[in-house]
Queue: 4 jobs
Job 1
Amino acid sequence: MTMTSLPGDETDLSAPGADDHPASHCDDKMHEECGVFGVWNHGDAAALTALGLHALQHRGQEATGIVAHDGHHFHQHRGLGLVGENFGDARVIAGLPGPNAVGHNRYATTGDTVLRNVQPLYADFEFGGLAVAHNGNLTNATGLRRTLVRRGCLFQSTMDSEVFIHLIAISQYSTVVDRLIDALKQVVGAYSLIALTNEALIGARDPLGVRPLILGQMENAEGGRAWVLASETCALDIVGADFVRDVEPGEIVVITDQGVQSIKPFAKAPARFCVFEYIYFARPDSVMEGTGVYAARKRIGAELARESHVMADVIVPVPDSGVPAAMGYADESGIPFELGIIRNHYVGRTFIEPTDSIRHLGVKLKHSANRGVIEGKRVILVDDSIVRGTTSRKIVEMVRAAGAAEVHMRISSPPTTHSCFYGIDTPERGKLLAARHSVAEMAKLIGADSLAFISQDGLYRALGHKGRDAGAPQYCDACFTGDYPIALPDMANADNRQLSLLSERS
């Protein structure tokens, strides 16, 4: 794929502002939106929810929270930081009694990282309490928020998720489920959410099923049936629950002591599950929409080798996300797979921030070259994506410094040319390297002897389809194509307001 760069547009990947994400000196990735988990009818609901959130930690590391219900009262605990930092103390879990609970891990896509923005959100209504955990992003939240404020609604957070609370509050319907349906019919965007009320645990997915949500079950201490809702199957495994099925796109599941009720209030539409779940976001041991993530990533790597192989001595993954694709690449090419880069797993969010004088060493906080594997070798580095390109350049420099004769980079996703508006934290489009440069220019900027990405058709083939254009696209792949399957009203309104202001000034 080739992108025409702007005249005179030379990207300096070492310039101030190139690493503008708080952790970008060692982490140049797109970040997942959030993880959600809920339990119904189990005596250890809060403890199970904490375990489930621990399994979903990769989906959000900024904040976490749990709301539990004991049959009479709601109990809640929220905090900034990781699950273990907030729920590792048995006294915290003891303060969350009851057989029903809902939890959330947050990576902020809207709103600041402050305690008032930590989910699940909770509110008291005429019908009782309601806690909501939301994964995704609403693309009409700004317009809805403005309308709700004009109606007198008082927002307590800066998150788009709070829109659900206010829409439910002003709904004229009598039951909680009908109020939720009323709210969901007014929002636009990608979402999976879990809501806990006095009488039910409710799960919902957006009509296109962009964001994941699954249903599981397990036995409780009394020999009865407990139900689980979660973002991924790996969260079922950690609590010993069995996978039942995916919650379908546009479906609402209502779990009560009587069982599971399915409601489908939306017109059926072609599903557009987020393809980046298979490439990077989901944990490798999860199964997404019936497809094992680990096997899918190996197939993507094999397809990448078929499309863009180059002669080399060793295949080296950029850990950890590049490992399965690199294994598939090695199997297909017949070139040995080696751990030529070692990741330090003990670098936390609170590690000392490097000073300007040693900022160039930042990537070594997480990665170091295994010189014995690399020295004198022609190396193929396999990674899942290039976003800003800052980390890719530092990785290439590190491998060269370890004595590599050649460094070729292969990426198991197509070029990321567009921002995501459906709940994934991506930079503005102007900061995406592939949006401003051709592949050849990108190779020069990161210092690689060659660079290649899997094609869009190759990605679809690896996932079991004939190609992207063989019928309607089966996935949301807007970050590669600019084909946004869900409307972006807030963006359109912002553009219109800007045009209006420019017209007034001229």
Job 2
Amino acid sequence: MALSPSEINDLRAAKSLLENPGLAAKLSNFVGSPLEAGLKKLPESLNAAINAVARKSVEKALDVALMTMDQDDREPPSNWWHKVAVGAVGATGGLFGMPALAIELPISTAIMLRSIADIARSEGEDLRHPDGRLQCIQVLALGGKSKGDDLAEAGYFAARTALAKAVSEAAEHLATKGMSQKGAPALVNLLARVAARFSIVVSEKVAVQAIPVVGAFGGAAINTLFIDHFQDMGRGHFIVRRLERLHGQEEVRQVYDAL
């Protein structure tokens, strides 16, 4: 069955969200200058620390996804309240600067994951099943257009395809064995893949927070942009997923490419 005009409009809105410039462009507008120079100034040791914190944050997000997500009715998601919560965490992090990243990022990511799940629920995703929950985790790897992420430059479906096998294997493991083996290769592989791509966006966030004058207000604003970006990614992704459940992946992909 072909997509209706209203469904095509939904898909057009999803594509606009998913293929628009990523967080770096939004942060550059916020600070009034490109981020590339700031990213180059980050020392190698800090990059390693960012990767470690990003992985820890994704691991915590997975715990949230598997333990506390409920299937509810399809009321609109509470995006605003999640933004307020993440902004408050960012303000605290802004006061203490870079040393607070290891504490602030896992909390922000967990709140962000709850917001993504809220969006997924509103688009009819079944969060009672492992695949639905892992789709929320996958959103953290959908960073949007970014000069630091060649795969994202290739587009939404390229990034999603690269993660498809890892998500499928992890969902199969969870469906059969649950969380009894958290160190299972399928879960470790998915976490590594998501964390590697999430860390690119986190580096962009850190490059702005490293500016001395950012402070608490700037930390709140940066975190608000951070969650707003991933809410957009989540909204776009789960609109596509909703339409795929109705019309099949191939049909939706063809219309998406044609828009």
Job 3
Amino acid sequence: MKKLKAVFKIIRPLNILITFLSVIVAGIIAQGKNYVPQILLLVAIAESLTFSAGNIINDIFDIETDKLNRPERVLPKGEINKQTAFIVYILFVLLSGFISFYVNTAVFKIIIGTNIILFLYSFVLKRTILLSNVIVASVVGSAFILGASAVDNIKAGYIPFLFALLINFGREIVKDMQDIKGDTAQGMKSFPSVFGFKSSKLVILLSSFLLIIFTFYPYVFNLYGLTYFLFILIIVDPFLIFIIYKLFKNDSVENLKKISLYLKLNMVFGLVAIYFG
């Protein structure tokens, strides 16, 4: 029972729920109909398994740095061992590939490609400054491309993809700021560890500014309706401005954890805006 609980924790349930909903929302938008066909549900499950696998392999490679950065995680705490985690990782990769194979060729290629990228990220690419942040943000955003591909209308996934990319790019920088102690101790270079917190905050500010500008694009060009615009104007953009304010106010790990959570929550608000828009 304890091992099952540990496996549940290592896959990051909230992240997986957001991934699942991202695929569903993208598919609904792309097909222009407010229902979830079986094929879209299968794709959402495959993507959730892929992201779960990505979280697991990342924790396996990060076990030493997590002893300093995130000692509450299941591997540093010894709730499960690396061998068990790796078996679950392989199982999830195989399941995601098996499910996507029976959907269509485009979805299968995206799922396999995402699994490969997530492994390479954990193995070597996460040591590349900024590129690693762009990779993770792009992979998160690709859930929208996948959902749109499932219903054969990939273009409909472009706008939510860019929204997810920009908000998650900032969040990845915040997470690097949060992990700077362990990363430095292990000799891993990230943007905050090389250029400092001040420069990191400016990068996050710039990406957030671009995101705010971009949120107006779908309404101005009549791609999304008034409900989307009101949701963006009243909730998403003001909340993002508040998050940036909190970022510049406090450098503590506790505050950075809250900011990371706020950005994740704001992505959910953005999904809701896009869905009703």
Job 4
Amino acid sequence: MKATARNGIPIEVSKDRLRADCIVAGVDPGLLTSENITDSVQALGIELNDDVQGRVAALVESAASGEPLAGPVVLAEGVAPVHGEGAWVEFLEEAEDQGDPDGRTDFYESRIPTVSEGQVIGFYHPATSVRSGTDVYGKPIKGVKPLHSVELGENVTLAEDGRTLQAAISGKLHVTRREVAVVEAVEVAEDVDFSTGNVDAPADVLINGTVRSGFKVCSPKSVAVRGAIESAVVEAGTDIHVTGGIVGQGKAIVQAGGDLFTKFCSDACLEAQGDITITRECMNSRIRAHGFLYVPRGKVVGGSVYARKGAEIKVLGNMSERRTEVAIGLDPEILPRVEAIDEEIRKKRESAAKVREKIGPLIAQIQRLTSEQREQATMLMFQADEVDVQADELENKKKQLTQAAGPDEKVQLLVTAMVHPGVAVIFGDKMTVFRMERKGPISIERRVIERVEEICAVDRCSGSVTVLPSYTYVPSEEPVEAVR
């Protein structure tokens, strides 16, 4: 923000509101008096504390000395907030390094290590606290809370130093965005095929090979696959972790009660009650993440995607304008049910209104009615009230349905590199379709603009907001013509 007061003293406030500079270049030194500078500072609403007054005095002294003034002169500085950092684990190579060269956990990699009892897994780094800052106006700037923080799960312990993390039993090292644990697992030495048959185990399952086409793996706990999943069915009560990818040929069904990790997927149906992470790419698949969807290093092309809590994707669509549909927030599958409830509410409201319209003239002259007519009018009025009560109950049912199928807070779709033409983005009952490519990083979200809810694209570099043309989304209809 830059402003020039009537006395000709220009002051510029940084975008983060943590610094205010006096732009002295080209300003008549005679104007740089304490009164003029102070007036300009106060005109912008900048807090005139002791530090600011000291800086103003120093600037006035420099101007009075006749020394040439150039460049911006800092008049006010805020205190930057301290953003919180979630707890994380620095893994050792002996535990089959899970992360970047610096040893930090990288949840985008899909590896499935095993550990021995007493083995040192790595080092635990606890979470850091969030502290608010203060801008140059004296107003607080909130620190950002971490999205994720790793907790210590079952069968892992901290040594006396409070940092060294050890395995309490021999088993599979189970790593998600939220937890590090060691679990005992039913281990399949090679592929799941005709030599093993289907796998239905009550414990965690570790498959050292590939789940071949036509077979099924089920567990009320987690499933880890070191190979790939072909056109098979894999179901887990908690997490599913696939080192390779999922090549579904239109028949693969992979369902996780927790998080789901895979390198890539094509022509498959994936659903997780938690987050879904796809390291490389997702092609022509049906994805349903009731948590967050992460494809931060790859692309999503074709198919349909739903992410209740938001998504981060590097590239959406491709140059051939393949139709790619991404729904964020409210589950689009409930929209037909919501529409049916709305229609039923409408009919009941109209029915009650017609009854009241019919008995209106009778009520107006109720003193002239016979007892029988009064009884009939009362009964009709009672029926209208009953219908309204039923409509109110349907309204509550609709509210509960949308709350259960929608996000708990504001959500967004973050695209870090590119959105190609042919991509449809859906927020609840609104949809926008891109006709021209748009470079990232941008976040696509639903905002209230001039009292109307719109789908907007927010440039993450400049902060500029663009309202995108949107239409009513009806799942059963063909997509509308693409818009710019």
